[in-house]
Specification:
Elements (H helix, E strand, L loop, with lengths): L1 E4 L9 E6 L8 E6 L4 E4 L2 E3 L5 E2 L2 E5 L2 E6 L1 H4 L7 E6 L2 E6 L53 H5 L10 H34 L40 H7 L4 H11 L5 H13 L3 H10 L9 H5 L7 H14 L3 H14 L4 H10 L4
Antiparallel strand pairs: 1-2, 2-8, 3-4, 3-6, 3-9, 4-5, 7-8, 9-10
Helix pairs in contact: 6-7, 7-9, 9-10, 9-11
């Protein structure tokens, strides 16, 4: 199968899939499989389940069938991506060429939002304050002088011509004596008589000294080791493995072999991909083995659970990169995978055999 840009759509977004021979089944729908990601193309991108995509047009000319696909395929496939097209009960492998442009998305014009007129703020109205002045008529009041009637209440005595002066003097003397007697009686009552009636105060304060209470506390058990022991570091954690990454992927791979199932498949795959991006020879060889069904890498596939699809063409690519980076294990693995590719008739396998095995 050959993939070419559609000459009728120079702006991009359309491609022609040219297949040798005529197709016997229904070719109005097809499936696109990403051999690298091992996922199918869906309406929103790559997904795990297969999805039927409607083609734009199918034409048969001579001994070839041409299928026109639109943006539903072109806008999601990147250049140099290994794909497998399944149509009419047959499958065809190829690499997506770099000559096909994706259809640019239309610009979205947003709405223009206006601002309402500012609400006028009314100015405060000044209120005139009316003040009323009360007319008060002041009236002068004359103060009358008070006459001390007590001055006139007691006669001088010298004016008593009938002898009443002596009688009034004795009355004042008797009244004074009675006042003295009443004061003396009151003093005796409050100072002498009442205190004699009060009960005696008994001193209730104990003479004995207070008893001392001895508090007995239970004995605490002796600690064997009073020093707080620090928890042991987890050598299988992300932090520990990241620290080993500075020594090379070999150190990480050796530690993961002792961790086994304590390391998740996603975490292990992250370290393999990161090291492969730096052309680490051991990581490249391991990546190729994960795509090679004839090679089992322990414990990544057996205990940790890292599994990838059997794609010999991709395995050959990683083996070849590992050999170039200096891996000795990848030499034998590349020779075995090249032997398998030489016997395959699939387009993807023949291309990989030519690129990485030196074949024709």
């Amino acid at each position: 199968m050959e993939i070419k840009p559609d000459p009728n759509n120079r702006a991009g977004g359309y491609a022609l899939l040219v297949i040798d021979g005529a197709l016997s089944g229904d070719s109005s729908y097809l499936r696109v499989f990403n051999s690298y990601q091992t996922k199918y193309l869906g309406p929103d991108g790559w997904q795990a389940t297969a999805h039927d995509i409607a083609v734009e047009n199918v034409s048969v000319t001579g001994n070839s069938t041409t299928i026109l696909v639109g943006p539903a395929v072109v806008n999601f496939v990147d250049e140099d991506t290994p794909i497998r097209v399944e149509v009419a009960g047959e499958s065809f492998d190829a690499y997506w060429p770099e000559t096909i442009n994706k259809l640019p998305e239309a610009a979205i014009v947003g709405g223009i939002g206006g601002t309402g007129a500012a609400t006028a703020v009314a100015k405060p109205t000044k209120l005139a304050k009316k003040t009323t002045q009360a007319d008060a008529s002041a009236s002068d009041h004359d103060e009358n002088a008070t006459v001390d009637e007590s001055e006139n209440a007691v006669d001088d005595g010298s004016k008593d011509e009938t002898g009443n002066k002596g009688l009034s003097l004795w009355i004042w003397i008797v009244l004074g004596v009675l006042a003295l007697l009443i004061g003396a009686a009151a003093a005796y009552y409050f100072l002498v008589y009442l205190p004699s009636l009060a009960p005696e105060v008994v001193d209730d304060e104990p003479s004995a000294e207070p008893l001392e209470v001895e508090t007995v506390l239970p004995a605490l058990p002796e600690l064997e080791n009073s020093e707080t022991s620090e928890p042991e570091a987890n050598l299988c954690s992300l932090e520990a493995l990241s620290g080993l990454a500075a020594q090379g992927f070999g150190a990480v791979q050796e530690q993961m072999a002792t961790c086994g199932s304590e390391v998740s498949a996603d975490l292990a795959l992250r370290f393999i991909e990161s090291a492969s991006a730096t052309s680490d020879p051991e990581a490249l060889s391991l990546f190729g083995a994960l795509y090679d069904a004839d090679t089992t890498v322990e414990p990544f596939e057996t205990e940790i659970g890292v599994t990838l699809s059997n794609i010999p063409a991709i395995a050959a690519e990683y083996y070849a990169r590992a050999v170039e980076a200096g891996s000795q294990d990848a030499v034998g693995r590349l020779a075995n995978i090249c032997s398998r590719l030489s016997q395959s008739q699939m387009t993807l396998d023949r291309t990989a055999f030519s690129d990485y095995c030196g074949g024709n």
